[in-house]
Amino acid sequence: MNTLFFDVDTQVDFLRPSGALYVPGAESIVPSVAALNRWAKANGIPLISTADCHAESDPEFQVWPPHCIGGTLGQRKPDETMVGQIVLNKTTLDCFEAPELAGLLADLGAERCVVYGVVTEICVRLAAFGLLKTGRRVEIVTDAVKELHAGEAARVFGEFTAAGGVLTTVAQATAR
Q1: Which of 94, 110, 114, 115 has its CA 20 to 30 A from that of 121?
Q2: Mean pLDDT calculated for residue range 70-84
């Protein structure tokens, strides 16, 4: 089964305590994200990394504080997670609003997508459910995601598995 790894929004502004829109505890998933990304690279598995990339006057800042402004340190992915992946810059919460994603998915031809990153109940959720809609097998790596609210993450996981998604771990995702 052709596999694709999908690293969602693991950026400095979300992952580091000094980040503009820090997700409490998110720095704890960086080693897992780095391990997954390195494993994908070492095993010839395509890796798409989504990245928020906003202009200084982005309308999203009416809802969320300014974050991931294009070209800033906060918009970057941590060096230890960068392995030559395809970085898909996006200006909205939903990566499926980026017009190039559909073509990229078709070109890569993956039947299985392994999803991880931040924030579980927002962008990870949108990516995972969007991938499910394409008819692929989709797995969320539960020890490589971070949420804002544990109860919301549990709800997302329940909805995801009810929709046919699979929950997995770093160890399971890299054992295949």
Answers
A1: 110
A2: 96
